[in-house]
């Protein structure tokens, strides 16, 4: 199975996904793509020997469909079986999602269905929750809403800030996402 990974930032999740796809794994990384040509994750992917590319979303302005058409052209050139969103921070339209329906995963830093969208850790702290976590789900047209493949939980500790909580959750993301990708790639 061929896996393409989309990211916008440092790509710590991408690194763990790529490192998890060893010779015994049913999948291999074929492309790491970003909407930001300067994304730190692109350098990390290249250092890991994975092909990289970028489509800067800014020249497209509000024309999401044109931006996504450019993404799809580059992605479909490598014919990915699975797309992993890993810290990809652009909203995808239904057209893009339908094109990859049933084979696109995302990691979201909350215990879905709680806290869809942004600032998940601050919202959990604000609500006085005692636990937080992350979820790997199939991407569907509704934001952060598709079938959940798995979740990991962490305790919220006294004195936690969004940053300390994010760091604790990220450790779990780095274990959960590779495990869920392996399961998903092993399915028929
Ligand atoms: C992480 O918090 C992840 O939950 C979210 O994007 C953030 C950065 O991820 N999806 P990465 O370090 O760029 O993989």
From TrEMBL:
<keyword id="KW-0658">Purine biosynthesis</keyword>
<dbReference type="GO" id="GO:0004644">
    <property type="term" value="F:phosphoribosylglycinamide formyltransferase activity"/>
</dbReference>
<feature type="site" description="Raises pKa of active site His">
    <location>
        <position position="144"/>
    </location>
</feature>
<dbReference type="InterPro" id="IPR001555">
    <property type="entry name" value="GART_AS"/>
</dbReference>
<dbReference type="Pfam" id="PF00551">
    <property type="entry name" value="Formyl_trans_N"/>
</dbReference>
<dbReference type="InterPro" id="IPR004607">
    <property type="entry name" value="GART"/>
</dbReference>
<comment type="pathway">
    <text>Purine metabolism; IMP biosynthesis via de novo pathway; N(2)-formyl-N(1)-(5-phospho-D-ribosyl)glycinamide from N(1)-(5-phospho-D-ribosyl)glycinamide (10-formyl THF route): step 1/1.</text>
</comment>
<feature type="binding site">
    <location>
        <begin position="11"/>
        <end position="13"/>
    </location>
    <ligand>
        <name>N(1)-(5-phospho-beta-D-ribosyl)glycinamide</name>
    </ligand>
</feature>
<protein>
    <recommendedName>
        <fullName>Phosphoribosylglycinamide formyltransferase</fullName>
        <ecNumber>2.1.2.2</ecNumber>
    </recommendedName>
</protein>
<dbReference type="GO" id="GO:0006189">
    <property type="term" value="P:'de novo' IMP biosynthetic process"/>
</dbReference>
<keyword id="KW-0808">Transferase</keyword>
<dbReference type="GO" id="GO:0005829">
    <property type="term" value="C:cytosol"/>
</dbReference>
<feature type="binding site">
    <location>
        <position position="64"/>
    </location>
    <ligand>
        <name>(6R)-10-formyltetrahydrofolate</name>
    </ligand>
</feature>
<feature type="binding site">
    <location>
        <position position="106"/>
    </location>
    <ligand>
        <name>(6R)-10-formyltetrahydrofolate</name>
    </ligand>
</feature>
<comment type="similarity">
    <text>Belongs to the GART family.</text>
</comment>
<dbReference type="InterPro" id="IPR036477">
    <property type="entry name" value="Formyl_transf_N_sf"/>
</dbReference>
<dbReference type="InterPro" id="IPR002376">
    <property type="entry name" value="Formyl_transf_N"/>
</dbReference>
<feature type="domain" description="Formyl transferase N-terminal">
    <location>
        <begin position="1"/>
        <end position="180"/>
    </location>
</feature>
<feature type="active site" description="Proton donor">
    <location>
        <position position="108"/>
    </location>
</feature>
<comment type="function">
    <text>Catalyzes the transfer of a formyl group from 10-formyltetrahydrofolate to 5-phospho-ribosyl-glycinamide (GAR), producing 5-phospho-ribosyl-N-formylglycinamide (FGAR) and tetrahydrofolate.</text>
</comment>
<feature type="binding site">
    <location>
        <begin position="89"/>
        <end position="92"/>
    </location>
    <ligand>
        <name>(6R)-10-formyltetrahydrofolate</name>
    </ligand>
</feature>
